[in-house]
Amino acid sequence: MKHSPSALFLFTALFSILTIFVGCRKDQITTDPSVKLTFSADSVIFDTVFTSIGSVTRKLMVYNTHNDRLNISSISLAAGEQSPFRINVDGSPGTNVKDIEIAPHDSAFIFVRVTIDPTDESNPYVVEDDLNFRINGNEQMVKLVAWGQNAIYILADQQVDGFPAFHIVADSLETVTWTAEKPYVVYGYALINSYGKLIMEPGTRVYFHDKSGLWAYVNGVLQVKGSLENPVTFQGDRLDQDYRDVPGQWDRIWLMEGRAGFDHEIDYAIIRNGFIGLQAESFLTPTANRLKISNTIIENHTGIGVFSRLFNIEADNVVIANCGNYAAALTMGGSYQFWHMTMANNWSFGPRNNPSLFLSNYFLDNDENTVPVPLNFSAGNSIIYGSNNEEVLTDFVAGADSVYLFDNCLIRTERNLSLWPGFKDCLVNIDPQFRDYETFDFQLDTLSPAIDKGKAGIAAEVPYDLNGVDRTLTPDLGAYEFVKPFQRLR
Fold first, then answer.
1. Residue 28: CB partners within 8 Å, gap ≥ 6?
2. Which of 67, 203, 245, 445 could serve as 180's disulfide partner, Cβ 3.0–4.6 Å?
3. DSSP labels for 111-135?
């Protein structure tokens, strides 16, 4: 069959148009604002510990999983030229690379380099920046993280559903000691595994990154052994002066139940600027061990200073101060003894709707029914004071033995204590006159009504104050014994 010249021309023209259309369709760049890039990782972490000025390079893959070509308008470092990081995208270096195209189902290489001087103590411990990708009017981000100073870095590398990411620092049947030689920087959670023990020597410094913490799992043991001259410190990893008194920079120290005779111990520690200072709870079964806290300052937490669920806590010479929710919430029953405690709560970062001290003797089961649990609480020679009119709240239900006693304490409360048998020989609604609320100095000033008001029998159980001063002759209330200023003779 023969074709006319006109039909052959028409067939050729249609074939050419179709070829051009298909070719154009294959190379089409999508403008769909809903398309997203896919990355080989959501963070690029430089976990090399530098020993001198140096740089390290990591690789990030960017994938186009779509059927159309993509144009990335820009790939840029959020800190721009001030960033310690630099990028190279398919051979194009800089801090802001524009118009990178990726073919359908193809990828691009990004090499990220960081240069750090780890001997520069003005560096933060954790150096961060964001690598921003802009495509079709939308932005995606990959976090860049590097270490800024010489330290021991604990980087979370495991995850279990329902729990935060963690790194095991003391495994089962293992005893590990942290020393004052180098600071420890925790990124994620440092975990003490079941039957493991972590000991911290005097002067140990622990810095937590955002949302990070220390976690003693069931039957794990934490022993913090600071000293008067060299306390163990726990705080956020932002060292610049602007962050010195900013709360909420890290998460918490989280302690679970253990065996009898294997107590958690914290002596001479400073725990500050987190969300919860200490959380002690019976997680699987009621605890048989105790948390013993002595000579310790827990201050400036956005949530709670000490939070417990059915635990046994013994605390001597403890300061719990400036917390946005409760200073101490002791819930679901348990046994608690606080001798010579200073609880001072003049939270200034916003409203505080809850009292400093909260006690409860029950928990709720799966059907929201109350289950009573025995509670035994005592505070002696202590101060419980703050900016609220009521600084002590109890929430008790019938069905469990629940006893509390405030013996020789200075308390701010709206109660008529003559009608409440749990308060014995207490001073009420008198300003304790601390030296300086604003600088967190809760030692007693010269005219403090707490001077010489302590009970000798309680003081004999805790003969030295938080500064190592003998208090047995005429004890004061709180964690600090008043010392008269030295007066020069004429």
1. 68, 69
2. 203
3. EEEEEE-TT-TTS-SEEEEEEEEEE
> Can you tell me which residue has the tokens 């179709």?
18
Closest to 319 in 3D by CA, of 400, 395, 231, 198? 231
- What number of H helices and E strands is found in the chain? 2, 40
Could you tell me which CATH number the domain at 38-147 has? 2.60.40.2310
CB count within 10 Å of CB 396 equals 15
Residue pLDDT, tens place only, 129-141: 999 999 999 999 9
pTM, two decimals, is 0.86
Q: Which residue ranges make up each domain of the chain?
A: 38-147, 152-461
- Structure-token match 């935060």, residue found: 164
Nearest to 323 by CA among 346, 341, 307: 346
Condensed to tens digits (0 to 9), the pLDDT of residues 389-399 reads 999 999 999 99
Question: What does residue 432 show for φ and ψ, rounded to 5 degrees?
Answer: -70, -10
One-letter identity of residue 216: A
Please say if the pLDDT value at position 5 is more than 90: no
